[in-house]
Design goal:
429 residues; alpha/beta; Rossmann fold; 7-stranded parallel sheet; 45% helix
């Protein structure tokens, strides 16, 4: 009964979804691409036997890339069906395709759209990355005999509470899953409470990512050209404003007052670099920088080396290794707003010490492990992050130790990719 009511509500929401896609497409043209796929209508010919991987957005697609590399080693000749929900995820996923692979949008979770999706592509197995649970999609897969697994799975305490409030809908959906491979023991416990049967901890795929060596070297070459660089990485809405307002408060001053007699690096001895998480916000953040009285230089306008300015804006995609190579210290985006934090593993693997705000529930165990390893430090707010960054910059030996701890921490937790690929292979048989 509850699934029928849900299906009716999803069907009634289709006009709203179409309107939302048109609005999003004005800022991100990728949302106007292949819209009929959202509703189970395809130009691609029908197929069968696919390994279907669903990676909703950018972060999940990057995790999927790590898993796919391992899957192709273990299952040579596999045909990939890759689905996404966001334009950034789809753009990132294009580089993962090989001849014979197919990329389409995730179907909207209406009963008709998901049935058409499953019937058209007839996957042998479905692999949902991290958190994506859709009741009708899972029901359609069960009806068609398609095993679906949840890989690199995570579930925060907040998400568990939400699932429990809708347990009549969510619990059967979790129960359909053929396997659940969790990032951490805490994730596995919460997933079991949500209704998943016997979750197994295989670790976090993102530890197996290898930073782009060319980007990393290019960033480090830029680093030596001027002032020390502090990066606000993958910033979410509101976090840039917190940083800019705090920096603006030091406008009349040359330095943050310090007790030592020797000159200390202060706010305006630092090169500030902001990289927003979402590309549709690049122009908005650029305007914020200028509105707060700072000169601005955008990565997209650099002919070669970075151009002088108070604030650099990293308005490019796929260059985080370059930015981490360039930075002496990184603030973890999403952790200074109540959003759970972005991926800190990549920064650590690049040897960039991380300052985390109070909100890291998306990577709770990784954050604790990074802090214990000395690769990261938790601070209560943005002013404390600025103060700690300056403290590190004024203590080069301490900063070097934190930088060296990052790659060691990242490499110590590798191995999830091969474990997950072997587990997929077992279900695929």
């Amino acid at each position: 009964m509850i699934l029928r009511l849900y299906s009716l509500l999803v069907w009634l929401a289709i006009p709203l979804l179409r309107r939302k896609l048109r609005a999003r497409a004005r800022a991100e043209p990728g949302y106007a691409v292949a819209v009929p796929e959202r509703f189970g209508h395809y130009q691609q010919p029908p197929g069968q036997g696919f390994v279907w991987v669903h990676a909703v957005s950018l972060g999940e697609t990057r995790a999927a890339a790590i898993l796919l590399a391992a899957l192709r080693r273990e299952m040579p000749g596999m045909r990939l069906l890759l689905t996404h929900g966001t334009a950034t995820g789809r753009a990132e996923g294009q580089a993962l395709l090989q001849p014979g692979d197919v990329q389409v949008w995730q179907p909207w979770d209406s009963a008709g759209a998901v049935r058409r999706f499953v019937r058209h592509f007839q996957p042998r197995i479905g692999i949902l990355m991290e958190t994506e649970i859709w009741p009708n999609l899972l029901a359609a897969c069960r009806a068609a005999g398609v095993p679906v697994v949840l890989a690199n799975a995570r579930l925060s305490a907040k998400s568990l509470r939400q699932a429990q409030r809708l347990s009549a809908l969510s619990r059967p959906a979790y129960g359909v899953l053929a396997a659940v491979w969790a990032q951490t023991t805490a994730d596995a416990q919460r997933l079991a409470e949500a209704g998943a049967a016997a979750p197994v901890v295989l670790g976090n795929l993102k530890f197996d990512a290898t930073p782009d060596a060319g980007q990393l070297a290019a960033g480090r070459a830029w680093r030596g050209a001027g002032r020390p660089v502090v990066l606000l990485a993958s910033a979410r809405e509101g976090e840039e404003l917190l940083l800019l307002q705090y920096l603006q408060s030091f406008r009349p001053l040359a330095l943050i007052p310090s007790a030592g007699a020797a000159p200390k690096l202060g706010v305006f001895d630092v090169q500030w670099l902001i990289v927003p998480r979402h590309p549709q916000r690049f122009d908005t953040v650029a305007d914020l920088v200028v509105e707060h009285g700072f000169s601005l230089s955008r990565r997209s306008q650099w002919a070669g080396e970075p151009e002088p300015a108070d604030v650099w804006l990293g308005d490019s995609l796929g260059e985080m290794a370059r930015y981490y190579g360039l930075a002496d210290v990184a603030f973890l985006g999403g952790s200074f707003a109540p959003l759970g934090g972005q991926n800190l593993i990549e920064a650590a693997a690049c040897g960039c010490p991380v300052l985390m705000g109070p909100s890291t529930f998306n990577f709770a165990e990784a954050a604790e492990l990074a802090e214990a390893a000395g690769a990261a430090c938790r601070v209560p707010d943005m002013p404390a992050a600025v103060a700690q960054a300056l403290a590190w910059l004024n203590a080069p030996q301490t900063l070097a130790q934190a930088a060296a701890a990052g790659p060691q921490f990242a490499s110590a937790h590798q191995g999830a990719a091969r474990k997950t690929a072997l587990a997929v292979k077992e279900v695929f048989r």
